[in-house]
Design a protein that fits this description.
single chain, 232 residues, 8 helices, 77% helix, 0% strand, membrane, transmembrane, transmembrane helix, YhhN-like protein
Length: 232
Amino acid sequence: MKIRTFAWAILALLILTNIWAKFTDVYWVENTTYILYFAAAVLLVQDKYKKFARPMYLFLGLTILSYLTRSFAGEGYSYEISLVFLTTANIILIKEAARYIEFKNASHLMMLYFLLIVGVNAALLGYHVWGIKDYIENTAVLSIYILYYINLLLLGIFAFIYYLNSYSRKSMYFISLALGIIFADILRDMGVFFPEDISVEIAESIIRLSCAVFAVWFFVTKEKQLRLLNMI
């Protein structure tokens, strides 16, 4: 059996295990499967790649640290500390995207479209933060959440610009990863601050599995020459 086929089989087993853990409220199993998603995703590319770039190790390491920190949920501010790790991991993604972006003069129509997309996303994320602020009594914790969602907004903006600059396979992996992270985190907050909905939790798990795969594919895929569509 090829390593790639074996990795897909592991991912299928992990998603089923994660769903079982959600139904049975076995949190440590659920959290562990999130970590193992990344290990299985790395196995997907082991046939072709033996060494990986430092940013990939940093991103995966910080993301895994965030999940390990959540294992101590309920002890101090472990959940908020996990957001700090995730923020740092997202900054690494933003820096990687910035490497492949070249800024040029944009047409008025393209600039309007860009501002519209950014405005809509900013409004939606702002509305989400506004909805959860009533459930957060600690000002410091609320500040962490606000900074984290500003970080997510920047990630989405860079992903959008990068994709329009390139339209390459690597940029598609990146924008899929960025959108996956944003949606998964919103679904996570829905489970934390609002009544539990198992369908929401399952959707989050599937998206996080996809994020693990897209993250690895993004880091190992080479970028082609940019098309420079005068996005901005």
